[in-house]
Amino acid sequence: MQAYQLVEWQQPPELRDVPVPEPGPGQVLIKVGGACACHTDLRVMDWPAGLHPYELPFTLGHENAGWVEVLGAGVDGWRPGDAVVVYGPWGCGRCAACRQGREMQCERNALIDTPIGGFGLDGGMAEYMLVPSARFLAPLHELDPRDAAPLADAALTPYHAISSSSGLLRPGTWALVIGVGGLGHMAVQLLRAVTPAQVVAIDVDGSKLELARELGADETVPAGESAAGQVRELTGGLGATVVFDCVGSDETLKLAADVARDGGAVQVIGLAGGTLPFGYGALPFGCSLTIPYWGSVTELMEVLELARSGAVRAHTERFSLENAAEAYARLRAGDLLGRAVVTPQG
Ligand SMILES: [Zn+2]
Ligand SMILES: [Zn+2]
Q1: CATH architecture for residues 2-153+295-342
Q2: How far is the CA of 42 from the centre of ligand 1 (A)?
Q3: CA of residue 295 to ligand 2 center, whole Å
């Protein structure tokens, strides 16, 4: 089968011929419907050799959905053809965090350093993907895996951030989403769906602001020098109660700190690699600064319920496996509306 693999650090990934994996006991082979291109992949491709202990080559794609193809020995509860989304952070399954479904906070596996599908182990940018345990599957039922793949990360990551700030997002408050890309366009919808907060979105790109309005943002503000002032004005001078920075550059972190409200929170979701000098006065009093990481299995199931009800829907652009490089090039250039999904089955 064809697989889009990282072969050398800091070199373009390659489409290569690899054997179709065979599921061992407890494992499941998935026929991949959709595998999304994510900014994290770009960060990984750009790593210098030796920074992380991943062995090359491996197939990219950590945001995956598809259909059950072959069940390994001992797996029950699934049938070939079932539409599934793959939960991405693969913990040990035995520690307290994993047993509560919070595998992204596994006490044994230092995620990022421990290989998972798409990061060190083969991910979903291939015709088939091996999932090491059936517990990483969640049922999509009638949802199409090509549309649902972004739910595994582009929706789950902001959903986890929103859930952890939900106590702050009361009626009359404002939530600010900086960057209306793959994660940001889901954040706008999720805020609408699960909090009473009013939503303002910021982006450099007018078409992304238009998308934000279509998806339910109450207000949009073009990025630039006057953005902070405009957010202050919209919020009656108080600022945004929670800022979801889906970019994470020096500029957006500064903006987040400038417009956050006393007692609020800044959640840094984007991986642009910016920094925010921290010290007295860097943030409003009582304002927290957090870098959330992915989400729990139960949160993924809640996201799936929201998608099934029609409350959230990923805006996607589809690419063939042969055109995966183009998906990443467009992502790097900021030239995508919503999420790029590679669809190996067409
Ligand atoms: Zn990702
Ligand atoms: Zn664990």
Answers
A1: Alpha-Beta Complex (3.90)
A2: 10
A3: 14
